[in-house]
Design brief:
12% strand; binds adenosine-5'-triphosphate; Rossmann fold; alpha/beta; 9 helices; 55% helix
């Protein structure tokens, strides 16, 4: 089976930035956020099941899933939330594994924001955590999304803590410096992962 590195990190830590640097080295990416949208795309089994459960009112005027409404409907209803997670989590997991299987690079980077929180670290051979301080998480996210710091701080507190992520990581990439430094860190890890994937049974 293919060698898979699970890339994670808190909000605004730089997962996308790091993933794109690996892609520049020719590594195929599997992105959990992208897959989560694919499994509820128009005509998908996922969307059909959601319509059966919540009714067609869960669609926008153009026939797409109304994510804001869905979020609202599961926000304060633990049972509905569980129903939705039990539907989507296996579909997302299966689709990610199928994309890994179809990848052609020597190893694959799986980008999963909630890798540890959702137990997806069990699907990967190695975990890589993008690490920055909470202060930098807040300032970079506020700048990127034009949201307020309190909102970002609430999200940080809902995610697995910095120390727990660091304790569970096989590898850590420090993203508190310049992008040029980050690129060098990625290049070094890429060499390491090529080596590890070569030793890994194909
Ligand atoms: P999220 O989980 O919130 O989607 P993420 O972990 O994918 O975030 P990015 O979007 O890659 O994080 O980075 C967050 C913001 O910080 C972006 O605007 C990005 O351009 C910027 N950024 C990333 N790394 C650096 C860096 N080393 N120096 C300055 N800005 C950076």
């Amino acid at each position: 089976s293919k060698f898979v590195v699970g890339l994670t990190g808190g909000i605004g830590s730089g997962k996308t930035t790091v993933a794109n640097l690996f892609a520049e080295e020719g590594v195929d990416l599997v992105d959990a956020d992208v897959v989560a949208r694919e499994v509820v795309a128009p005509n998908s089994q996922g969307l059909k099941a959601i319509i059966d459960h919540f009714g067609a009112e869960i669609l926008t005027a153009t026939g797409e899933l109304d994510r804001a409404q869905l979020r609202q409907r599961v926000f304060s209803d633990e049972q509905q939330r569980q129903w939705l997670n039990q539907l989507l989590h296996p579909m997302i997991r299966q689709e990610m594994l199928s994309q890994v299987k179809n990848a052609t690079s020597d190893y694959v980077i799986m980008v999963v924001p909630l890798l540890f929180e959702n137990g997806l670290d069990r699907l990967v051979n190695r975990t890589l955590v993008v690490d920055i301080s909470p202060e930098l998480q807040i300032s970079r996210t506020v700048k990127r999304d034009n949201v307020d710091a309190t909102q970002v701080n609430n999200i940080i507190n809902s995610q697995c803590s910095r120390s727990e992520k660091l304790a569970r990581a096989d590898d850590v990439i420090d993203n508190q410096g310049e992008i040029s430094t980050l690129k060098q860190e990625v290049q070094a890890l890429h060499q390491r992962y090529l080596q590890l994937s070569g030793n890994h049974d194909a």
